[in-house]
Design goal:
The chain has 4 helices and no strands. The chain is mostly helical. Helix 3 packs antiparallel against helix 4.
Length: 129
C-alpha cells in the first residue's frame, strides 16, 4: 500500500509553521472565550441558558481542536524521526495519520466558528427585545 509513496524528511517539516500558527490561533480563540465567560460571570446579570449551552459546547470543541492539532504536530515529529532512522514506510504512514488529525482539527474549527456565529445571533436576539 505504501510501496510507491516517498516522504522525504522535509515534507513533514513543511507543516511545522502551519501547525504552530494554527495552534496559536486556537489558543487565542480559547483565551477570548475564557475572557468572555469571566466577564459574563462578573456582570452579575442573569445568563441565558442557551448562551451557557453554547459556551460549554465551544469550550469542548476548542479543547478537541487543540488536542488534535498538538497530536498532529507530535506525529509530524515522530514521522521525521522514523524517516531519519530509515523507516520510510512507517514514517509515511505516521505522516498520513498526522494529516488526518490536522484535517479533523480544521473541521472542528469550522464547527466552532458556526457555533460562535449562533452565539452572536442569540446575543442579537436579546438586544432586539
Amino acid at each position: 500500500m505504501f510501496d510507491n509513496i516517498h516522504v522525504s524528511l522535509t515534507t513533514p517539516a513543511l507543516l511545522f509553521p502551519a501547525i504552530s500558527l494554527l495552534l496559536l490561533a486556537y489558543t487565542n480563540r480559547f483565551f477570548s472565550l475564557a475572557a468572555l465567560i469571566r466577564n459574563l460571570s462578573a456582570d452579575g446579570k442573569p445568563i441565558n441558558h442557551s448562551q451557557l449551552k453554547n459556551l460549554r459546547q465551544r469550550i469542548s470543541i476548542i479543547k478537541r481542536m487543540q488536542e488534535s492539532g498538538a497530536l498532529s504536530f507530535a506525529l509530524c515529529v515522530l514521522c521525521m524521526i522514523f524517516i531519519y532512522v530509515g523507516f520510510n514506510k512507517v514514517g509515511a504512514f505516521i505522516f498520513g495519520c498526522s494529516l488526518f488529525l490536522l484535517l479533523y482539527s480544521l473541521l472542528l474549527s469550522v464547527i466552532e466558528i458556526r457555533i460562535s456565529v449562533d452565539a452572536l445571533n442569540i446575543h442579537l436576539q436579546e438586544l432586539d427585545k
